[in-house]
Amino acid sequence: MLAFRRPQELANPLVFFVMAVSLFPLGVSPEKSFLAPAAAGVVWVASLLATLLSLDALFRADHEDGSLEQLTLAPQPLFILVLAKVFAHWLTTGLPLLLLSPVLALMLHVDEGLLGVLMLSLLVGAPVLSLIGAIGAALTVGLRVGGVLISLLVLPLYIPVLIFGTGMVQSAAAGMDYTSTLAMLGAILALSLTLAPFAAAAALKISVSN
């Protein structure tokens, strides 16, 4: 509900995602022989950057109106509240990116048989982007240059997700078994789901106390 009160913040990552993918053929090459092999990487990088664009607002409104301090003092464990915020972030950012990805992938000449694999990789990988990003957002909440610092903090942690996400599609395109890559991506999701809410909760307490 809080997110839908700011429709411009919801639209910005989606518009960026569409523009980034759409401009790639114009800036490089519109040839199918070039775009098809690179399409998975383009969609993944664009979705990663679009997620980064939306992370600064994850806890910012709560910090500005003082409710973040009340959340840290609430009787409920803070990591549960963080997990709820991350889930809401994925619903308003990750899920729309997931639904848009097949349309943009077709524009990049991705084979229709690979669309399911691409969406599966984003379904498993996009929540990891939100979970890891929550740690950076919690550490930089209240800072004027928080968006820049979030990028510096979380981009190195996004690299394994990007590698395995694009690797799934590339393995499927080559006719190879991609279940091992999917298993690695699922393991990263399980690890992030286990550790990231606690790390973000601790970071929020540090940020609020300062």
TrEMBL record:
Bilayer topology: Multi-pass membrane protein
Cellular location(s): Cell inner membrane
Keyword set includes Oxidoreductase: no
Keyword vocabulary terms for this entry: Cell inner membrane, Cell membrane, Cytochrome c-type biogenesis, Membrane, Transmembrane, Transmembrane helix, Transport
Gene Ontology cellular-component terms listed: plasma membrane
Pfam families: CcmB
InterPro entries: Cyt_c_biogenesis_CcmB, Cyt_c_CcmB_bac
GO molecular function terms attached to this record: heme transmembrane transporter activity
Entry's transmembrane regions: 12-28, 34-58, 78-108, 114-141, 148-169, 181-204
One GO BP annotation of this record: cytochrome complex assembly
Domain of life, source organism: Bacteria
Methyltransferase is among the record's keywords: no
Listed PANTHER family: CYTOCHROME C BIOGENESIS B-RELATED, HEME EXPORTER PROTEIN B
Family: Belongs to the CcmB/CycW/HelB family.
Role this protein plays: Required for the export of heme to the periplasm for the biogenesis of c-type cytochromes.
Name of the protein in its database record: Heme exporter protein B
